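Notes taken during the Thursday session

The instructor put the following on the board and asked us to keep it in front of us for the whole hour. The protein is Helix-turn-helix domain-containing protein. We were told not to look anything up and to reason only from what is written here. First, the residues (111 in total):
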Amino acid sequence: MEPLNICPRFEQAINMLGKRWTGLIIHQLLDGPKRFSVLEASTSISGRVLSDRLKDLEQNGVVKRNIIPESPVRIEYSLTDKGLALEPILREIENWSQNWIEQDYGEQIGQ
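Then, after some discussion, the predicted structure tokens were revealed:
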């Protein structure tokens, strides 16, 4: 059997975006900057996992961590231009899911 000839950049992109919760985090940030606590509450992702994913996305240049010098210090997360470039893709996945994913899918997979 002949090995698949997959573009290394495509494979890297799929590996980054395919991590659990990553797409949901990016989707939440499409509406604008959000604080960690807001992301945690709106996604029901555990704080540890959310922190790990945000660090990964920041290292990959998809998310920017903004420190706002107030008392107490406020930290918000927003999408970079690289992250915002994913909007049409995520909107198409959203459209596809509305047409093809059954509403009770989350219950079927144990969420």
